[in-house]
Specification:
Strand content: 5-15%
Number of strands: 3
Order of helices and strands: HHEHHEEHH
CATH class: Mainly Alpha
Largest sheet: 3 strands, antiparallel
CATH superfamily: Winged helix-like DNA-binding domain superfamily/Winged helix DNA-binding domain
GO molecular function: DNA binding; DNA-binding transcription factor activity
Strand order of the largest sheet: 1-3-2
Number of domains: 1
Radius of gyration: 18 Å
Helix content: 55-70%
Structural class: mainly alpha
Shape: globular
Protein name: DNA-binding MarR family transcriptional regulator
CATH architecture: Orthogonal Bundle
Pfam families: MarR_2
Organism: Actinopolymorpha pittospori
Distance between the termini: 25 Å
InterPro entries: HTH_MarR-typ (IPR000835), MarR/SlyA-like (IPR039422), Tscrpt_reg_MarR-type_CS (IPR023187), WH-like_DNA-bd_sf (IPR036388), WH_DNA-bd_sf (IPR036390)
CATH topology: Arc Repressor Mutant, subunit A
Length: 144
């Protein structure tokens, strides 16, 4: 795309990046388990990053209702990737966390993704990669 407006250029490249990220997310999700979709993969990533969370917190994070999360969690439980654990502070509350199998499958899929990314970016100078990482971090810190 050729444009003199840098904001238009950024907008266009972001649209391409997001489209590719959605497709990639689905492919990585299937590496975790053939039946896992992108939404369930996002939930697994959230649990990996937080170390575990309550359903209400996960629903708030994704901006969806608790029934939606509950369906996803039930599905992931049946696959053996997620488990419910009684909260030690409030026995009525339940914390969700990855099972050992969930941790292992997610790590394996992420390692494969990183290997592919390294392969794709192998020809890029380290300085360019550092700059890209810094700029993406700065962009992700914007208050949308």
């Amino acid at each position: 795309m050729s444009t003199d407006d840098p904001v238009e250029s950024v907008e266009h490249e972001l649209a391409v990046l997001l489209r590719r990220a959605r497709a990639t997310s689905g492919a990585i999700a299937r590496e975790v388990h053939p039946d896992v979709g992108a939404a369930a993969y996002g939930l697994l990533l959230n649990l990996q990053q937080t170390g575990g969370a309550r359903m209400t917190d996960i629903a708030a994070y994704f901006g969806v209702g608790k029934p939606t999360i509950s369906r996803q969690v039930g599905f992931l439980e049946r696959l053996g990737l997620v488990e419910r654990v009684s909260d030690s502070e409030d026995r009525r509350a339940v914390t969700l966390r990855l099972t050992e199998e969930g941790v292992e499958r997610l790590a394996t899929a992420q390692q494969a993704r990183r290997a592919r990314l390294r392969e794709l970016l192998d020809a890029w100078p380290r300085r360019d990669l550092e700059t890209m990482g810094r700029l993406l971090h700065r962009f992700n810190d914007l208050p949308f």
